[in-house]
Amino acid sequence: MKTLGLAIVLFFLSINLAYAQHAAPAAPRSETSAGSPIDDAAQEQLLQQAMAQIKAGMNADAINGPLAQVIHTYETAYAHSKRQVYCAETLTEALFYSGIASSNHQGSVVLSKPDWAMAYYLRGYAYGSMGDLVHAEASLKQALALSPSNSQFLSELGNVYENEKNWSSALDTFQSADGAAEFAPPEQKITLRCHALRGQGYVLVELHKFDEAVQKYNACLSISPGDQRSIGELDYVRGLQAKAGK
């Protein structure tokens, strides 16, 4: 099962939680349906616990333990909400979601912590690591229902489509992930864009569109010179082109 590398997931999670604590969008604190605030620190601690379990290969324990707790907390809190709920990491992302809801004449609330969406994402990642593509896809789509322009979530869904050999959906999703990187925290944008571009390159190789694949890997190198994965993939694609007589 091809997924976003665990080291990268760990990096993004730590950055996401830190960013949410120090530079979260100006939105109301998460609240339960009873009006009492959700203990954000407790949810983040559970997410860290889940990450440690996933890192140790205890995917089922993470799914059925801390991730289930976080998901239950938020699903219970917003079960009867009449407004569309979003999770955003940055102010730009929060304003974008508010604009979507407004254009649809729909009430919305944008949570200033990404924990709920992150729990679905990590559950999808854990399912993917176990080879359960059906549940991985379903959980990632739940994460994207809350954070539809999250590049990290989109790329992981693209990886699932790759493993399903659903090349069309994979390519479309990686393209969306590339565009969505603009909403990410500044320190993540290049890494997220490169992951999305390499994902497109991989799919284009599978479709035997070698010239287009080369363009995607070069696009990554233009913003991240020395990216070893893109360099390695370029060498591989050029070898395929040579065999094809191009």
Automatic annotation (TrEMBL):
Domain of life: Bacteria
Keyword Signal assigned: yes
TPR repeat positions: 117-150, 194-227
Keyword annotations from UniProtKB, A to Z: Signal, TPR repeat
Keyword Signal: yes
Stored SMART domains: TPR
Signal sequence range: 1-20
PANTHER family given in the database record: CELL DIVISION CYCLE 16,23,27, CELL DIVISION CYCLE PROTEIN 27 HOMOLOG
Protein name: Tetratricopeptide repeat-containing protein
